[in-house]
Amino acid sequence: MAADIVSRADTGFENLWGLQDCAETIYEFASEEQKQRFIPRVCNGETMSMDLTEPDAGSDLQSVMLKATEQPDGTWRLNGVKRFITNGDADIHLVLARSEDGTKDGRGLSMFIYDKRDGGVDVRRIENKMGIKGSPTCELVYKNAKAELCGSRRLGLIKYVMALMNGARLGIAAQSVGVSERAYREALAYALDRKQFGKAIIEFPAVYEMLAVMKAKLDASRALLYETARFVDVYKIYEDIAKERSLTPEERKEMKEFSKKADACTPMVKGMGSEYCNQNAYDCIQIHGGSGFMKDYACERVYRDARITSIYEGTTQLQVVAAIRHVTTGTYLNMIREYQAQEVKPELMWLRDNLMAMTESYEKAVNTVTEVKDTAYVDFMARRLVEMAGNIIMGYLLLNDANSNDEFVRSAEVYNKMAQTEVAKHADFIANFKPEQQAIYKA
């Protein structure tokens, strides 16, 4: 919620503290002594960064080659280059580096903590970016920089970075919601004030439809954000309890269930939330017309800041890769069934009826794709299937909000109609597509 609020005011500033969940990673995986040294510094205002990406290892983190060499005294020395590092001038860094000689995959990578006070890292370049200019993105050169191991060797990518990235992706989802909110507010204010042909432009159907859809996308992405954050909170609370006592079988079962749901919803909310953010920023410019192209209006900055949300901390395409297994294993369908079983006011039943019909289309599409038994074909259709599931889940979350608060009824209705169209579009594409036609899309 805090990241959502701050992002509305200054998206780049939100990156300085709200994006990466680095302190949480130290809390979860570092030694007790390391926690006592580093976490209070973060609480007192020092910044952190996660140094993962390299010039030849962007999304493919298994290819990271920054070298970590253990010293006789138990410390480590880091040598190499990191690129596109958000907050690269931070006080404390979490660094993914290759600790095992002769390895070339993720099993040779470990996580390290680098303290800026120890020196050994130069900021070679600060990137000149399209947006989020208040957040420095740096290229770093490690020159025999002193560091210390965080957690166990070889688990850097396999365990720690995966947890770190999930936190960061939830942070970007929150940032996306904040930018969507700002875009909607700027568009609404301008549409109320701007007069053409003798009346405010908000009175024209083409404009008020855009605003209604913007608000529906905003409310839907926020509903999924808060639902995902709830899943994360519950399973992490159980993890903390487990450090003090053994969990009961019921508690362990619930922790596993919430962890699975968090794992399923994190890529969905990051992927679809950031895409909605970009769409709302686009529509905000459109409602401003020619004025939106000028730097005089805030929407120009909103548009530039929005663009990165669907790229960093894993592109939308990578979120689909992470989400598709929850389509094929039934995680999303099981969640939909749970939402479907909840009570609904009589006047909102038509929304649930529509969502149930969409679910039938989704189930049929999943079966059509998986029956081909071709992994490449599943990957080709993955975006469509994930979006179908996302539209239905967000439709139910908005329905639940509308069921308890009349302020959400309009967004629930607008989103329901939009979701109907999107689900039908993807269902039609899948139903009328032959697997061998995939070849026409290849370069």
User: What is the number of independent domains?
Assistant: 3
Query: In whole angstroms, how far apart are the ends?
Result: 43 Å
CATH-assigned fold name of the largest domain: Butyryl-CoA Dehydrogenase, subunit A, domain 3
Question: How would you name the CATH homologous superfamily of the largest domain?
Answer: Butyryl-CoA Dehydrogenase, subunit A, domain 3
Could you report the average pLDDT, rounded to the nearest whole number? 96
**Cα gyration radius (Å):** 23 Å
**Structural shape:** globular
**Helix percent band:** 55-70%
CATH architecture of the largest domain: Up-down Bundle
Let me know the largest β-sheet.
Answer: 7 strands, mixed
Fraction in beta strands: 5-15%
The helix/strand class is alpha+beta
Per DSSP, the total helix count is: 13
Can you count the beta strands?
9
Are there runs of 5+ residues with pLDDT below 50, and where?
none
The CATH top-level class label of the largest domain = Mainly Alpha
Order of helices and strands: HHHHEEEEEEEHEEHHHHHHHH
Q: Helix and strand layout, with pairings?
A:
Layout: H1 2-9, H2 11-15, H3 22-29, H4 32-43, E1 48-51, E2 67-70, E3 76-86, E4 92-98, E5 109-115, E6 121-126, E7 137-150, H5 156-193, E8 195-196, E9 199-200, H6 205-244, H7 249-288, H8 298-307, H9 316-328, H10 331-340, H11 349-370, H12 375-404, H13 409-431
Parallel strand pairs: 1-4
Antiparallel strand pairs: 2-3, 3-7, 4-5, 5-7, 6-7, 8-9
Helix pairs in contact: 1-5, 3-5, 5-6, 5-7, 5-8, 6-7, 6-12, 6-13, 7-8, 7-9, 9-12, 10-12, 11-12, 11-13, 12-13
